[in-house]
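Ticket #4471: structure output looks truncated?

Reporter: J.K.
Steps to reproduce: submitted the chain below (452 residues) through the standard prediction queue, then opened the result file.
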Amino acid sequence: MTQDAGSAEKRRSIMVNAYDGAAATGLGAADRELIARRERVLGRPYRLFYREPVHAVRAAGAHLFDASGADFLDAYNNVPAVGHSNPRVQAAVAAQLGTLNTHTRYLTDGVIDYAERLTALFPAPLSQAVFACTGSEAVDLALRIARRVTGGEGIIITRNAYHGTTSAAAAISPSLGPGNEIPETVALVDAPDSVRGPGGDAAGAAFAQQVEAAIADFAARGIPFAGMIVDSVLSSDGLRLAPLGFLARAAEVVRAAGGLYIADEVQPGFGRTGSWWGFERHGLLPDLAVLGKPMGNGIPISAVIGSPELFDRFGAEVRYFNTFGGNPVSVAAANAVLDEIEERGLLAHAERAGERLASGLREIASSAGDGRVAEVRGAGLFLGVEYVDAAGAPDPAAALAVVTGLRERRILVSASGTFENVLKIRPPLVFDDADTERFLDGFAAVSADLGG
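Returned output as attached by the reporter:
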């Protein structure tokens, strides 16, 4: 398993759907000047989406608005899970900010109340939480725990994974691009491919065999094994959801070799798939779970969830401190997110809305009759549409054309996957029937244009 396999695909992964000033012919003078100022002060590492970037000035629910008042349907942004500018989150943050905001080295009520509430959503023995500010920090901590507890170093990931941007998280994020070096202590395995690979039990068996081979390769090279971390929906690999149970099978192999299995729930967690956590779909009990992004609806908060046994073993030798991880204001936002999910029935809504959206996408793709859509797949309000050419090969150009066409109709999605040929659709969980109809109408129009 070479670390530079698929370098061309990885190169695309940092360029797909990115702003290109030379191609942006429709931008007004004010936006061009703002982009020039941005590039001067923020530098080259930052990327803007779309040939013509969206200049948002306010947002509500599943909608963004520009300075002219034009309404953009946000079908991509999973961070504001309970909606942009959510009133309950706003009120909770404002009230707490006017009362107390300090670090977790002082005794406060909110972080304890929230930790009890959050961990109650996980199966035993996952009953403790350590808070941080970002998903990357939480991934970094989970890796430290796994390596300290097992005494190992080797980590297995999927080939186009994304887990974050700290040094440790970037080292297990090949999707960051060809200049992002993946060390020899990290092994890459291919995600199951429901379009080109075997299906059913054979796919699960093949994935488990790759994990076994990676562990054996670590042993042959004298690298002690620490564990495996997988985004529970493999979103950067193209939203790989099947066969159900393949992650549980891989976790069994990992544990048999003395490693820990870490479920990265930063993208699928908090109801995105129609259940609280993405790992639940696979009948899987992870050793650690990592949370982030939608946890505070945009207010920085993340967590590692684990068992007292693992945390005790780590904490006996290592002092972990995160100045504002789990601060009272972030905890207030996170509590409000749970209130919204529970009181508005957003788990069931995500499942129903996702089924309706997926059904509509399949109907439109089938009606097109051109075979460009190889598969529509999804879980709750996390959906992927995979594009192929006439020979059945991945077609990133088609996916990008659809992304661009939808952007022209003020509907926002992106593309991902090993070949960047999969539409990535993951709107806020408050995506309603009118939003769904608008999205499907836009998708139908773009699909017709693509076929023509």
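Triage note (M.O.): checked the attachment and the full token line is present. The chain has 13 helices and 15 strands.
Status: closed, working as intended.
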